[in-house]
TrEMBL record:
It holds the Pfam family Ribosomal_L36. GO terms for molecular function: structural constituent of ribosome. The lineage of its organism: Eukaryota, Sar, Alveolata, Ciliophora, Postciliodesmatophora. GO terms for biological process: translation. This is Ribosomal protein. It comes from Stentor coeruleus. GO terms for cellular component: ribonucleoprotein complex; ribosome.
Length: 77
Protein backbone atom coordinates (compact mmCIF):
# COMPACT_ATOMS: atom_id res chain seq x y z
CA UNK A 1 0.00 0.00 0.00
CA UNK A 2 1.35 3.40 -0.96
CA UNK A 3 0.92 6.38 1.35
CA UNK A 4 0.47 9.50 -0.78
CA UNK A 5 -0.80 13.01 -0.15
CA UNK A 6 -3.26 12.97 -3.07
CA UNK A 7 -4.96 9.68 -3.88
CA UNK A 8 -6.09 9.04 -7.46
CA UNK A 9 -7.69 6.28 -9.42
CA UNK A 10 -5.05 4.55 -11.50
CA UNK A 11 -7.50 2.47 -13.55
CA UNK A 12 -11.22 2.18 -14.17
CA UNK A 13 -11.60 -0.52 -11.49
CA UNK A 14 -10.12 1.51 -8.62
CA UNK A 15 -12.62 2.41 -5.90
CA UNK A 16 -12.29 5.35 -3.53
CA UNK A 17 -13.30 4.48 0.05
CA UNK A 18 -13.57 6.67 3.16
CA UNK A 19 -13.02 4.98 6.53
CA UNK A 20 -12.31 6.63 9.88
CA UNK A 21 -11.56 10.04 8.31
CA UNK A 22 -9.01 8.55 5.90
CA UNK A 23 -9.31 8.08 2.16
CA UNK A 24 -8.28 4.78 0.60
CA UNK A 25 -8.13 3.47 -2.97
CA UNK A 26 -8.84 -0.22 -3.40
CA UNK A 27 -8.47 -2.10 -6.67
CA UNK A 28 -9.57 -5.71 -7.14
CA UNK A 29 -7.96 -6.03 -10.58
CA UNK A 30 -4.50 -4.68 -9.68
CA UNK A 31 -3.76 -4.97 -5.92
CA UNK A 32 -0.65 -2.80 -6.38
CA UNK A 33 -2.97 0.20 -6.94
CA UNK A 34 -3.85 0.28 -3.21
CA UNK A 35 -3.30 3.75 -1.74
CA UNK A 36 -3.97 5.61 1.47
CA UNK A 37 -4.01 9.35 1.98
CA UNK A 38 -0.94 10.38 3.96
CA UNK A 39 -0.74 11.70 7.47
CA UNK A 40 1.02 14.69 8.96
CA UNK A 41 4.24 13.95 10.87
CA UNK A 42 5.07 17.44 12.12
CA UNK A 43 3.64 19.16 15.17
CA UNK A 44 1.45 22.22 14.46
CA UNK A 45 3.72 24.75 16.17
CA UNK A 46 6.96 23.23 14.89
CA UNK A 47 6.57 25.04 11.56
CA UNK A 48 6.78 28.41 13.35
CA UNK A 49 9.47 27.55 15.89
CA UNK A 50 12.50 29.77 15.37
CA UNK A 51 15.55 29.62 17.59
CA UNK A 52 15.64 32.86 19.62
CA UNK A 53 18.40 35.35 18.88
CA UNK A 54 17.54 37.86 21.58
CA UNK A 55 16.04 37.45 25.07
CA UNK A 56 12.97 39.45 24.00
CA UNK A 57 12.01 36.70 21.56
CA UNK A 58 11.75 34.12 24.34
CA UNK A 59 8.42 35.56 25.51
CA UNK A 60 5.31 34.65 23.49
CA UNK A 61 1.83 35.55 24.58
CA UNK A 62 -1.10 33.16 24.84
CA UNK A 63 -2.95 35.08 22.11
CA UNK A 64 -0.03 34.65 19.71
CA UNK A 65 0.07 30.92 20.51
CA UNK A 66 -3.63 30.58 19.67
CA UNK A 67 -3.20 32.47 16.40
CA UNK A 68 -0.25 30.28 15.38
CA UNK A 69 -2.18 27.16 16.33
CA UNK A 70 -5.15 28.23 14.17
CA UNK A 71 -2.87 28.99 11.24
CA UNK A 72 -1.25 25.58 11.47
CA UNK A 73 -4.57 23.79 11.77
CA UNK A 74 -5.78 25.58 8.63
CA UNK A 75 -2.65 24.39 6.81
CA UNK A 76 -3.40 20.79 7.77
CA UNK A 77 -6.90 20.90 6.31
Amino acid sequence: MKVVSAVRRRCKDCKIIRRKKKIYVKCDTYPRHKQRQGFCTWTPLACFTVPPKFPEQLQISTREMLVLDQLCSNLIR
